[in-house]
Amino acid sequence: MGGQRAIIVDTTAFIAGFNVYSAHGEVYSVPEVEKELTGDSISKLRLKMAIEDGRLKLREPSAQALSKARETALEMGDFLSLSEVDMKIIALAVQLKSEGYTPEIITDDFAIQNVAKRLNVKYASVITHGIKYQLRWVLYCPACHRKYPPDYKSEICESCGTRLKRKPMSKDPM
Ligand SMILES: [Zn+2]
C-alpha cells in the first residue's frame, strides 16, 4: 500500500521525449532500451546522460517476474503482440511491485497497457505525460503485418484478432 513510486519507461517513451528529470519518483527501464534507441541521437544522448547520473536505473527483471509477465500475456491473448523487451518492461513492474514499490509504466503500447491492467499495475500514456513532440504513429498488426490508419478506432486487428502495435514513425518538434 502506497509504496514509493517507481516509473518504468519503454523505448517509445524516450523517443517521444519523456523527461526523466521531471518525473516524480525513481525511474527504471530494462538494459535493452539502449540497443533499441538507434538512429535518434537526441533521445540516445538523453538516455545516456540519465543513466550516467543515476536518474535512470536499468534493471534486468528476475526469471520469476518474467514468467509471471508471460503467463499473464498468454492469458490475455497478448503474447504475440509483445516483444521480448515489452515482456521485460512488464516483468520489471511485477518485480518492483513485489519489492514494495508502486510501479507505473509509461507506454503507448496497447498490449503492455492491457497486461498491466490485468496485473493491477498502473500505466500512463506517453502522450498525456507532458511530451514535447508530436509523434506520428504507424499502427500495425504484429502477427499478420496488416497496416492501419493512425486514427483507426479499434486496438484489435480485424483480420486476425491480434492486438495492434504502434510505433513512432517520425517526430516533429511542436
Ligand atoms: Zn492481424
Ligand set: zinc ion
Structural class: alpha/beta
* Spatial strand order of the main sheet: 3-2-1-4-5
pLDDT < 50 runs, ≥5 residues: none
Shape: globular
The biggest beta sheet, please? 5 strands, parallel
How would you state the average pLDDT, rounded? Answer: 87
Strand content: 15-25%
Helical amount: 25-40%
What separation lies between the terminal Cα atoms? 39 Å
- Strands, count: 8
Explain how this protein is built.
This protein has 174 residues and is an alpha/beta fold. It has a single domain (5-132), classed as Rossmann fold (3-Layer(aba) Sandwich). It has helices at residues 11-15, 33-36, 41-52, 63-76, 84-98, 110-118; strands spanning 5-9, 26-29, 56-58, 102-106, 122-124, 133-140, 147-148, 165-173. The protein has a five-stranded parallel β-sheet. A three-stranded antiparallel β-sheet has the order 7-6-8, with no helix packed on it. Helix 4 crosses helix 5 and helix 4 crosses helix 6. The chain is globular and about 45 Å long. The protein starts with a strand and ends with a strand. Zinc ion is lined by residues 141, 143-144, 146, 157, 159-160, 162.
Summed up, what is this model?
The chain has 174 residues and is an alpha/beta fold. 34% of the residues lie in helices and 22% in strands.
